[in-house]
Amino acid sequence: MTTSIDIARRIAEVNHPLSRESVHALAEILVCKKYRKGEIVLQAGEVCKAMLFIEKGMLRQFYYKYDKDLTEHIGYENGMIICIESYFKQEPTRLMVETLETSVVWELPRVEVEKLIDQYRDIERLYRGFIEHSLIESQIKADTLRFEPAHKRYDKLLQLHPEILKRAPLVYIASLLQMTPETLSRVRSSLL
User: Fold this and answer.
1) Which residue ranges traverse the bilayer (predicted)?
2) For 18-60, how does the pLDDT look when each residue is reduced to its tens digit (9 = 90+)?
3) pLDDT digit string (tens) for 104-148?
4) b/e code 140-171 from CB counts within 10 Å (16+ = b)
5) Domain ranges of the chain
6) What is the full DSSP assignment across 98-137?
7) What's domain 4-147's superfamily in CATH?
8) How confident is the model at residue 14 (pLDDT cuts 50, 70, 90)?
C-alpha cells in the first residue's frame, strides 16, 4: 500500500526536491481519496480548496457551454489537477472534475499548503513550481489551439501526453483538441 510519505516523495521527484523534514511535513497534510470511474470530484459551483495529485487513474476538467460538454484538461499519474481561478480567489468554479478511470487522488489542502510555505523554503519552491507549470501548460494549450491546425494539435498532444491518446475516450480527446470526433478520426487515419 502506498503511504503519504511515498506520495510526498513522488511529488518532490516530479516537481522539486525536498528535504527529508519537508517530505514528512508535506506527507502530514496529504489526504487520500479513492474514486470509481465516472465520479465527480469537483462540481461546478463548488470552491476548489485543494490541488489534486493523481497517484493512479485519469481525471478530466470540463465545463458546459450552450449545453455542450467541453474538456479543458486531462490529467493522469503524477499529474496535478487544479481549478486555478477558484483555488486562488476561493470563489465557486465553473469547471467540473470527473474520473475517467478508477482513480486514487491525493489532496493538498490550500490552507495547509500555505502554512507549510511559510515554514519551509523548499516547499515554497515546490508550490511555485506547480503554479508555474500549470500556467505554462495553459499557455501552450491556448497557443496551440489558437495558432495550429488540427493535425499539429494532435501531434503536440502525441508528443507531450501520449497517455491521453492511449487511455482517454476519443470524444474527450476531440473536445480537448477543440475538434469534432470526425475531424479527429480523419487526423488519426492520415497518420497511419
Assistant:
1) none
2) 999 999 999 999 999 999 999 999 999 999 999 999 999 999 9
3) 999 999 999 999 999 999 999 999 999 998 899 889 889 998 999
4) ebeebeeeeebeebbebbeeebeebeeebeee
5) 4-147, 148-191
6) EESS-EEEEEEEHHHHHHHHHH-HHHHHHHHHHHHHHHHH
7) Jelly Rolls (2.60.120.10)
8) confident
Cell 480537448 locates to: 176
Q: How far apart are CA 12 and CA 4, in angstroms?
A: 12
Kindly give the residue spans of alpha helices, DSSP state H, lying in the chain. Answer: 4-15, 20-29, 84-89, 110-119, 121-147, 150-160, 162-167, 170-176, 181-190
Residue at grid coordinates 465545463: 63
Please report which helix (H) or strand (E) contains residue 96, including its range.
strand 96-99
